[in-house]
Amino acid sequence: MLLEAKVQTARVDNFFSGLELIVLDRGVDKRPKYTCRLVRGWPGLDELRDLRKQNQPDTVLQQAAAQVPLPAEDQVLELVVLDVTGKGNYKTLVCEMAAPIA
């Protein structure tokens, strides 16, 4: 599923595996709000995940996470939804960029 998402908030997630985004769906009239975990296609995410796989200490991961540029508030991103996780009202969309940003 393709999601045209308007970013409300963005941060690196607690596990250093992607970006946690709160977005609005621009393709729907009522503009539902979603929590998304962006896992691919954003600059710096692959390097951050590689450091995590190498079992680097938290201080190194925090420094690398600080170097990952965050999308600006109200920036529109084209996302591909890969999976939906969670239960009830606490669902998270696992996404990647439709076109990778270099």
Describe the 3D structure.
It is a single chain. The chain is α+β, with helices and mostly antiparallel strands and 102 residues long. It is built from two helices and five strands, in the order βββααββ. It has helices at 45-53, 58-67, and strands at 2-12, 19-25, 33-40, 76-87, 90-97. β4 and β5 (90-97) form a beta hairpin. α1 (45-53) runs antiparallel to α2. The protein starts with a strand and ends in a 5-residue tail after the last strand.
Backbone shape: globular
Chain-averaged pLDDT: 92
Please, how many helices? 2
CATH architecture: Beta Barrel
Distance between the termini: 23 Å
CATH class: Mainly Beta
Provide the succession of SSEs: EEEHHEE
| Secondary-structure content class | alpha+beta
Tally of discrete structural domains: 1
Over the alpha carbons, how many angstroms does the gyration radius reach?
A: 14 Å
Describe the main β-sheet briefly. Answer: 5 strands, mixed, barrel
Share of residues in strands = over 45%
- Which spans have pLDDT < 50 for at least 5 consecutive residues? none
The total of beta strands comes to 5
> Within the CATH hierarchy, at the fold level, what is the topology?
OB fold (Dihydrolipoamide Acetyltransferase, E2P)
Helical residue percent? 10-25%
